[in-house]
Write a structure and sequence with these properties.
The protein is mostly helical and 455 residues long. It has one domain. 84% of the residues lie in helices and 0% in strands. α2 crosses α8, α2 crosses α10 and α14 crosses α15. It is globular and about 60 Å long. The relative contact order is 0.12.
Length: 455
């Protein structure tokens, strides 16, 4: 098959293309992760282990809001792109208007739920009685910023579909920068502790969200019209259908956080570490994990346009080469982070809380055991992206959900009931290995079918 010279996706060097398409996504996600880490460092130094435990118990709310925002944002962006490709400008504009309405309605419902049921949700999310009050305050203050946070996340995808990804990236970086600057002011200077951290966070989210909302009259290829905000069943159905996979993946993350938080609280109380240390150590480990995860998301998303274009152009050799390059890069990232988690757990934990021997002891144990299988983490991420790019969403969703929803949650419940806190931790490397084997089996079967067809 002759390679397409008219489009760089069909002719340029694959490693160069992967770098070009991966870096912006990695940078955007890592900025968001890093400001969450900085936030937790300030809280740890101001309120210690209990402060970190209180804020981590509220974190599933952030993930749930992300699930709703990405379902609307990704679904809207995908439908706008499809409509524009079909030269259906009016339908694209109706999609944008309906997407905006869906976004704000879902945000208002979630805000109301968290404000009215703050104590109920904090308990479900894993807060122990010792940190419940602080966790409820933190959760309720964060809830006030949800419409802006969700706007920022949803509009990132929608603005990207208009061909302006840098605008969305700048808004997120501004919000993160504001949070980092305001954290020490509210936490230390005004002596507001955990509440100060929440206030600093929502102010940064408001700034980022307002900047994204301000893009509405600036769309280049379509126009935002208020009359298109009236909900239409067919339009909403198409938005939710294409956004559902993104919602599923984020929901699986939220469920994992809730299950693990509760296991840390319940089984941690049966050890010398206690609930607060177990919950706080798991929470900071997840904050560091998100930085590593952002790199895999960047590699996976960077392969999508390359694989999609070349698969459509029947340039199957380039698709296979792209997959091999992506897998190689993901394994390098996996091994580097595996080494960091195994050797640097104490150093990483010490950034958040100092001079707490039991906290540091469990943090090292937590990083060591929970991340034991991280060296195979990358293959499922790249494989899920591959199947999505070639138009096989079922296999993509199966691979993407395998680690958390299919393996980790059931294993953590089963093993913790028999082996307590350590059983919950050992569930993660077991899930990593099973997800790796599943991805390997699916991709082997796929490429063997290509070989049979002479591709």
């Amino acid at each position: 098959m002759t390679e397409d010279k008219g489009n760089i996706l069909g002719s340029a060097k694959i490693s160069r293309l992967l770098l070009k398409f991966s870096v912006p996504t990695v940078m955007t996600l890592m900025v968001n992760c890093l400001y969450n880490i900085v936030d937790q460092i300030f809280i740890g130094h101001a309120a210690g282990v209990s402060g970190i435990a209180a804020t981590n118990a509220a974190f599933p709310m952030v993930t749930i809001s992300a699930a709703l925002a990405l379902m609307v944002g990704d679904g809207t962006a995908s439908n706008i792109s499809l409509c524009l490709g079909r030269k259906e400008r009016e339908e694209a504009e109706r999609t944008l208007g309906n997407g905006v309405t869906l976004l704000f309605l879902s945000a208002l419902v979630l805000v109301a739920a968290m404000l009215l049921g703050g104590t109920f949700f904090a308990r479900i999310f894993g807060a122990s009685e010792a940190v419940l009050a602080d966790s409820v305050v933190y959760l309720r203050i964060l809830a006030l910023g949800l419409p802006f946070q969700m706007s920022n996340m949803a509009f990132t995808a929608i603005i990207r579909s208009d061909g302006n990804p840098k605008y969305a990236m700048k808004s997120m970086m501004l919000g993160a920068g504001m949070n980092v600057v305001l954290d020490p002011i509210f936490i230390f200077l005004l002596d507001l502790g955990v509440s100060g951290a929440a206030i600093a966070t929502i102010l940064g989210q408001m700034a980022a969200g307002i900047i994204c909302i301000a893009y509405l009259p600036k769309f280049e290829h379509i126009s935002f019209r208020r009359e298109n905000m009236r909900l239409r069943g067919a339009v909403c159905g198409r938005i939710l259908a294409l956004g559902f996979p993104s919602c599923c993946m984020q929901t699986a993350t939220a469920l994992t956080q809730i299950v693990m938080n509760n296991l840390m609280r319940n089984y941690g109380a049966m050890t010398i570490y206690g609930s607060e240390i177990a919950l706080s150590c798991y929470g900071i480990m997840m904050k560091i994990y998100q930085v590593a995860h952002a790199m895999f998301v960047g590699v996976a998303s960077g392969t999508q346009p390359i694989n999609g274009y070349n698969y459509g152009a029947k340039q199957y050799r380039r698709v296979r080469r792209t997959f091999r390059v992506a897998v190689t890069v993901s394994f390098v990232i996996s091994f580097v982070w595996f080494g960091i988690f195994q050797l640097g757990g104490g150093l990483l934990a010490g950034l958040f809380v100092e001079e707490e021997p039991l906290y540091l002891e469990f943090a090292v144990l937590c990083f060591h055991v929970y991340m034991m299988g991280f060296f195979v983490y990358g293959l499922p991420q790249v494989t899920a992206s591959f199947f999505q790019a070639i138009g096989k969403p079922g296999k993509s969703l199966l691979t993407a959900l395998s680690r958390q929803a299919i393996f980790l949650i059931p294993l953590s419940l089963a093993l913790s009931s028999r082996y307590g806190l350590m059983g919950a931790l050992w569930a993660a490397p077991a899930a990593d290995m099973l997800a790796f084997l599943l991805a390997g089996a699916l991709i082997f079967h796929e490429f063997r079918g290509w070989k049979d067809r002479g591709w």
